[in-house]
Amino acid sequence: MMNKHIQKLLKKKLAFVGSVDESEPFIKCMMVSKREDNIFFFDSNNASVRAAHWKKNPNACLYFYGGPIYRGVMLSGTMEIINDMELKKAHWKPLMKFVYKGGVTDPDYCILKFIAKKGRYYYMYKSEDFTF
Predict the structure, then answer these.
(1) What pTM was estimated for this model as a whole?
(2) How confident is the model at residue 22 (pLDDT cuts 50, 70, 90)?
């Protein structure tokens, strides 16, 4: 069972998201659009660099951090690129029209689905591993 600090960190809306190309790791900050237990969803672009990485190698990680005393939690798992119209409609927000000019049917709009398998919590020079 995850402690209350881990639970609080996993409710944050911003996560650092990691991918790997043929040889190097990459990371960027993304907004979590929805969470269901160990599954995190993000709105993204089919043509993005990260989508290309995950098509070749679905391994991914998320990192959340908080303060005032530094706490962090890293999750490792897999990322899936989803273009299911029903799921896209469920995630669609009107403001997204500014990014995806074609609306919910824009061919570049996709959903990223991260499934966490395990995690590592950091706090005060100590760490704690956990699984989902």
Answers:
(1) 0.93
(2) confident
Q: Across the strands, what pairs with 74?
A: 63, 120
Q: Do 53 and 117 contact (CB within 8 A), yes or no?
A: no
Return the SS3 of 37. coil
d(CA 62, CA 119): 9
Separation between Cα atoms, residue 30 and residue 50, nearest integer Å: 11
Q: Give the DSSP H/E element, type plus range, for residue 112.
A: strand 109-123
DSSP string, 35-75: EETTEEEEEEETTSHHHHHHHH--EEEEEEEETTTTEEEEE
The backbone region for 23, taken as left when phi is positive above 0, alpha when psi lies in -120 to 50, beta otherwise, is: alpha
Count other C-beta atoms under 10 Å from residue 41's C-beta: 18
Three-class secondary structure of residue 9 per DSSP: helix
* Token pair in block for residue 90: 């469920």
The residues, any chain, with a CB within 8 Å of residue 105's CB and separated by 6 or more, are 85
